[in-house]
Amino acid sequence: MSTVQMKINGNPVEVPADYTLLAAAKMVNVNIPTLCYHPDLPAWAACGICVVKLENSPKMVRACATPVAEGMSIITHDPELHQIRKTVLELILSTHPNSCLTCGRNGSCELQRLAAEFGIREQPYEIRLKDLPKDDSTPSIVLNPEKCINCGRCAIVCQQVQGVWALEFVGRGDGTVIAPAANLTLDDSPCIKCGQCSAHCPVGAIFEKDQTRNFLNAVNDEKKHVVVQIAPAVRVAIGEGFDTDPGCVCTKKTYAALRRLGADAVFDTNFAADLTIMEEGSELVQRLTEGSGPLPQITSCCPAWTDYMEKYYYDMIPNFSTAKSPMMMQGAMTKTYYAEKANVDPKDIFSVAIMPCTAKKYEITRDDNMFASGQQDVDLVLTTRELIRLIKASGIDFKMLPDEDADSPIGEYAGAGTIFGNTGGVMEAAIRTAYALVTGEEMENYDIEAVRGMDGVRRGVVDFKGTPVKVAVAHGMGNVKELLDEVRAARDAGEEPPYHFIEVMACRGGCIAGGGQPYATTDEIRERRIAGLYADDKASEVRCSHQNPAITKIYSDFLGAPLSEKSHHLLHTTYQPRPLYKK
Amino acid sequence: MSVKNDTIKFSDELTKFIMEWKEKPGNLIMILHKVQEEFGYIPRDAADKVSEMIKVPLAKIYGVITFYHFFKLTKPGDFNIQVCMGTACYLKGGDGLIEEIESLLGIKTNEVTKDGKFSIEAVRCVGCCGLAPVLVVGEEVFGKVTKDQLPGIISKFN
What we know:
A: Ubiquitin-like (UB roll), 3 domains, 4-stranded parallel β-sheet, about 15% strand, globular, B: Glutaredoxin, about 45% helix
């Protein structure tokens, strides 16, 4: 890697030639303040707070968007720069409502933090607030343009990372708002509810739809039997809300917290992830050996991805696994199998799912298949962020909680179930089981390195005892195009499909970095959360879904066999083409 | 892909123009110009159709349409009265002309009269500052306009 020599605040440094001034400064532990910049995104240079001085030039440049150069000498901090940055903040604050105390980002807002650090005590500029309506049209997120500081992160993540193009800069100058096209609401737009906009918003302008009250009402209702499931990715991120390290596996403390919050039974979505593998794995084996459907088979557990496919690639519906997501399977099993075992009327069950994801709030009512038990299978979805708030507000000292186990009979999980939360995990879990189903033998090594990692698209071949199975993984919605266009081209040309099985997750890194996870997620944090899930897998006595005794039992007691009629009714779904714009 | 129905017809000339520009850089603005030339504004259905034809997201098209004052999202009147608000015209009383036209027609700037005949638009410099204040109706330019000439100008098109 080539480097350049430069000076930062008078100190000579050698930095990689492809660095920006911001990265170079960070390398020598100089923090330049930023607001619009986010490490996940290309620099947009909108806010101007990261300006630095160039020696021998009257010009100031934005550190986030300026590359380093040989012999460059910059000043990052001095009284003049301090004043300029303070002015930038004061100007932003003059158009931003002063409602911190009642804002969802109170305490986690990046603008609030900078205002505190710069000691802003008064607002010298005329206050000019925007008077614009909230968009709460989707079940997942709320857009509050009054709080928007036009940093552009949400639009860039929506367009360039996710490839969805629901949000755009509309208008110009100080009249610019970030909104869908044609004055439409998000619900009428191509929005897939992934919530990456809300995860990247530095302020409270885009926010998950808070439903913590619904949970409290349910546990307060004596007639309601409240059953909660937690998703794989929640366990390695929830701790961040209580100052543990990212990736710390907090499964058992989360179970304990949910009981203290009033849950009558605590289950684990990982159980249903194992169930998903049984169904989806069997479906794959049928397609491979009996040609029961087109190849490649494509995973369907991510609701944002499903929504995207129904809008952008609905010609691929036959390739989609009909298996429901683990959350929906768990919901259906809660109100049938569990209700039967526990002798509870399904009508009295209030089924809650703790998810890393805002799209899951949409999924629970996406179509009639989500009511397979005869009731709404999942009544409420809370994101990890909402659960953290609930735990704090309920006076629970999370870190001091004892470790507790999940309840039976739908709480036990294999290592395969837990890695559903990261990119490549569903694929790896499916291969472990499909291998056994096809060859009748267990794999020698359950760690399938070919599908691990953080590259946006990964391709691999797994040897099923002489039969090569071609697989591919994509994460970050924008990356899926490359794979699907390959599949489409082969299909339209009448050629062999390039893959047998494709896993897609809408968010970069998978659910561990979902739109409902704790804020400030970066690649470093993604990797630590993923490492947490692999560690949980490795530490599991049972690594494969088909070896999970609770899974064997649910089939013998209740479902019969994978892809049975009962399984089809309760655990599978259908898809339909949807217009990009409803209006 | 879109499951939307094809609800608007483009002239052969417009279609040919779009296909010609489809792959070229800078195509979107050229195409939007042509669309506005055909319809007088950019109807939503036309934006949908352009999006489909050149594979550019609708949001991006709206980003461009709303950024440039030139592009219109609503149908202007048969006679769009453009009042120049460039520096010279403004100093010579362009804003007074707008107020007077608004009161004569009973509409605000960027609105259309009920019969669809007139609309008012404030525009940037039209390039004949020597004639300030200037207004333009269709292709016709009126220079050194005074308020008392306005009823006459309007009745010319009525």
